[in-house]
Amino acid sequence: MEPRLVGPGPYRATRLWNEVIELFRSGMPLRKHRCRFKSYERCFKASEAVDWLHELLGCNQNFGPEVTRSQTVKLLKKFLKNHVIEDIKGRWGKEDFQDDGHLYRFPPSSPLKPYPKRPSCAKEAVKFPDWNEPKTSASQEHILVKSVTTNFEMWYKRHSIAIGEVPACKLMYRRELTQANIEEIWKSMTMSRLQKTLGLDSLDEVLDTKLVNAKHIVQNVYNVNKQGIVILEDKSRPSCSDLKQPTYSGFERDVFKTIADYFGQMKEPLLTFHLFDIFVSVLGLLQKHSKVIEALQISCLLLPPENRKKLQLLVRMMARMSFNKDLPPLSESVTTRTLIVQAFSRCILFSKDEMDLDELLAAKLVSFLMDNYQEILNIPSSLKAAVEEHVVYLQRVQIKYSGADTDATFPAPSFCHQISTDEFESQRANGSQEPLAALLEEIAMNKEISVKDKKKKLKQFQKSYPEVYRVRFPTPEAEAVLFPEKNKQKPPILMWALKKPFQPFHRTRSFRM
């Protein structure tokens, strides 16, 4: 069985857990071993399992070379606790696995992790105001909207200037959106962008959207300082920026240990338990750098502001320490980068479930965060621009044409990708000519208007849109088909018309003899 890349999607952590178990069972070499004058068939030493599994995880693109030997030992401890493996006497669960010569074997069947059954979460969509209804209360959050369908009559009345008629219209002044409306718009469009970036049909199986706080998103976007760090509303905490820092030998190690102990006491990781599946799913996009950057930017907006600020400060410190060549070594056995990843991975991401590869996934995520923290922990500018543009549109004065339902709110603008100039010109030409061609055809085939009015409208249309008109009527004969000539009775031919007209006498020259 060959390892494969597990992409983003529902239950990615479960799929990875089951795949590693299957690879381990199918590939781990088994042979005969002796222990205390007794032979045991089809078993392996603990150190052999660590060697083989460490190499497997390092070559697997779902984890990569960042996996350390100690992380592999921790994973084998989980395998022993969950009866993926057992010792040669059949014991498992409470036995502690060590990187030594103890013998282990596979049970007849290693239990795979079942896929969890989540209650179906109703898809939440932003609800925009219905501007025709009277204003009930300022705190109204859920306001219905009427659907808009553009038919010919509606289009005709909007563009009737082209044919010389302007129907009656009036301005519709829209009410201001409440803060609750704006927060729901942010939540809806953020969820939509995240779903599109991950390439999923729905977020229901990777995220419970009911637990996403819209206020947190807005605060993470707008309540920031010049460096982009979140500003908390509680400013009562003292600042330590003015304290004098000691410079004794070993000061860096003491500071590192103090910070590691502080974050190590957290009961919940900074990325929170309910966002675990989202961040694990994002890791499936690591082969696409720009996609994973955007997905992490959006996912970090969902964090509580306190968590986002701690994450920003912690990851920035970790990155600076990792790339600081002048920093004294913090450990004699491992590099500074490896030590930092091992010390802070669990406080950033881990799972409630014991049957998970959270140590490996957290190490991979933290390494990527350290290398790209300046981009990831910034506000996604394209999302911010799209939301603000949509809010401005909703607050804009609209024109209502008489008899046409144009005062309803249009849906949120869909996201787009960049195209070439030629493609843009082609789309603009085709997109605008199709409704114009339909309008011209309606005028041409309308039998209820008089011939005089039809000719007048066609002439005005030809003057306004000559290219569209030329496609429909390439020759005068094509246009003449619309106006067949009636058989008129010719007047009788008069007899005098057949005679030659009177010619005056021309005097000729005479020759004298």
Automatic annotation (TrEMBL):
PROSITE patterns: DEP, RHOGAP. Transmembrane segments: none annotated. Keywords: GTPase activation. InterPro entries: DEP_dom (IPR000591), Rho_GTPase_activation_prot (IPR008936), RhoGAP_dom (IPR000198), WH-like_DNA-bd_sf (IPR036388), WH_DNA-bd_sf (IPR036390). Residues 24-108 form the DEP domain. It holds the Pfam family RhoGAP. One of its GO terms (biological process) is positive regulation of Wnt signaling pathway. Residues 180-377 form the Rho-GAP domain. GO terms for molecular function: GTPase activator activity. This is DEP domain-containing protein 1B. The gene is Depdc1b.
